[in-house]
C-alpha cells in the first residue's frame, strides 16, 4: 500500500474461543431455566470462560497497540467493528422489546376478545386483559403477588446510570485535554456507579423473587421482566469490566489526547447500555 503500511494482525484463537464460551454459557442458562440447578455449573463455567477470554484478548490487543503496530486504517477498522457490534446489540434488545410490545398491544387484547383475532377469547372466556398481567389466563400459572414500584430501587438505578454517563463524559473530555488525573478520577466514579447499579439490581431481584412472587414462572410479565432486565444487567457487568480495564490503562498512561479509541469504544458501549435502561425504566417499570 503506497504511502504507508497496512498492519494485518496475526491469526487469533480468541474469536472462536469466545464463541464457544458464550455458547457454553447459553446452554447452561437454558438448562438451568428448564431443568433446574443442573445447568447452573455449566452456566458459571461458561461465564468464567468468557471472562478469561476477554482478559487474554484485551491483553493481546493492548500489547499490539503499545508496540505501535496500529495505523489509521486499523483505527477505522476498530471504529467500524465497534459500531456494527453496538448495532447488533440494538437488534438484540429490539427483539425483546418487540416481544413485550407484541404481548401488550396484540396478544392480550385478542385473548380479551378485541381486534381481528378476538375469537381467541374462547380459550379463556373469563379473562380480562391488563398490564402488568397479575392473573394469567391459565389457572395453572400463578402471577406475581405485586409488582415493583418504579419510584424506589428502579429510580435509584436510573439516577445511577444517567449520572454515570455524565461522569464518563467528564472523564473523556479530561482525557482529550491531556488531563490524566481528571480522566482517572471521573472514570473511578463511573466504575463505582456501575458496581452500585449491579448491587442495587441484585437487591431488587431478591425482593422481587422472595417477597413479590415475581419470578420467571410468574406468567408473561415475570418472563419478560427478567429477560429484559437480566440481559441488561449482564451488559452492565460487561461494561463495568471494560471500564475497569480502561481505568487501568489510563493509570498506566496508555492513552494520550489524540490516541485513545479503546477508551471511546468503552464509552460508546456504556452510553448504549444507559440508553437501553431508559427504555426499560419507561416501558417495563412505569407503563
Automatic annotation (TrEMBL):
**Heme-copper oxidase subunit III family profile domain boundaries:** 2-287
Any one GO BP annotation for this protein? aerobic electron transport chain
The membrane topology noted for this protein in its Swiss-Prot or TrEMBL record is: Multi-pass membrane protein
Q: Which GO terms describe its cellular component?
A: plasma membrane
The protein's UniProt keywords, in alphabetical order, are: Membrane, Translocase, Transmembrane, Transmembrane helix
List its EC numbers. 7.1.1.9
Q: Which residues cross the membrane?
A: 12-35, 41-59, 80-103, 151-171, 183-203, 223-247, 268-286
Report a single Gene Ontology molecular function: cytochrome-c oxidase activity
Q: Name one Pfam family in it.
A: COX3
Q: Say which family it is in.
A: Belongs to the cytochrome c oxidase subunit 3 family.
Q: What PANTHER family does this protein's entry cite? A: CYTOCHROME C OXIDASE SUBUNIT 3, CYTOCHROME C OXIDASE SUBUNIT III
Under what name is this protein listed? cytochrome-c oxidase
State the organism's lineage: Bacteria, Pseudomonadati, Pseudomonadota, Gammaproteobacteria, Oceanospirillales
Amino acid at each position: 500500500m503506497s504511502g504507508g503500511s497496512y498492519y494485518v494482525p496475526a491469526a487469533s484463537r480468541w474469536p472462536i474461543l469466545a464463541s464457544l464460551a458464550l455458547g457454553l454459557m447459553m446452554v447452561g442458562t437454558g438448562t438451568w431455566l428448564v431443568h433446574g440447578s443442573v445447568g447452573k455449573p455449566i452456566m458459571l463455567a461458561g461465564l468464567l470462560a468468557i471472562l478469561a477470554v476477554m482478559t487474554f484478548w484485551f491483553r493481546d490487543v493492548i500489547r499490539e497497540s503499545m508496540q505501535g503496530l496500529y495505523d489509521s486504517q486499523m483505527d477505522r477498522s476498530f471504529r467500524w467493528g465497534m459500531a456494527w457490534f453496538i448495532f447488533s446489540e440494538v437488534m438484540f434488545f429490539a427483539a425483546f422489546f418487540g416481544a413485550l410490545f407484541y404481548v401488550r398491544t396484540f396478544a392480550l387484547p385478542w385473548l380479551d376478545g378485541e381486534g381481528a383475532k378476538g375469537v381467541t377469547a374462547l380459550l379463556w372466556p373469563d379473562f380480562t386483559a391488563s398490564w402488568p398481567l397479575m392473573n394469567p389466563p391459565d389457572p395453572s400459572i400463578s402471577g406475581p403477588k405485586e409488582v415493583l414500584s418504579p419510584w424506589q430501587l428502579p429510580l435509584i438505578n436510573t439516577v445511577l446510570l444517567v449520572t454515570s454517563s455524565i461522569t464518563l463524559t467528564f472523564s473523556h473530555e479530561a482525557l482529550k485535554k491531556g488531563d490524566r488525573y481528571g480522566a482517572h478520577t471521573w472514570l473511578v466514579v463511573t466504575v463505582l456507579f456501575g458496581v452500585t447499579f449491579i448491587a442495587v439490581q441484585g437487591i431488587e431481584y431478591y425482593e422481587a423473587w422472595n417477597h413479590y412472587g415475581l419470578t420467571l414462572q410468574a406468567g408473561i410479565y415475570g418472563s419478560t421482566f427478567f429477560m429484559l432486565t437480566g440481559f441488561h444487567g449482564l451488559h452492565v457487568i460487561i461494561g463495568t469490566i471494560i471500564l475497569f480495564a480502561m481505568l487501568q490503562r489510563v493509570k498506566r498512561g496508555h492513552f494520550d489526547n489524540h490516541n485513545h479509541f479503546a477508551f471511546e469504544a468503552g464509552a460508546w458501549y456504556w452510553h448504549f447500555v444507559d440508553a437501553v435502561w431508559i427504555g426499560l425504566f419507561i416501558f417495563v417499570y412505569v407503563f
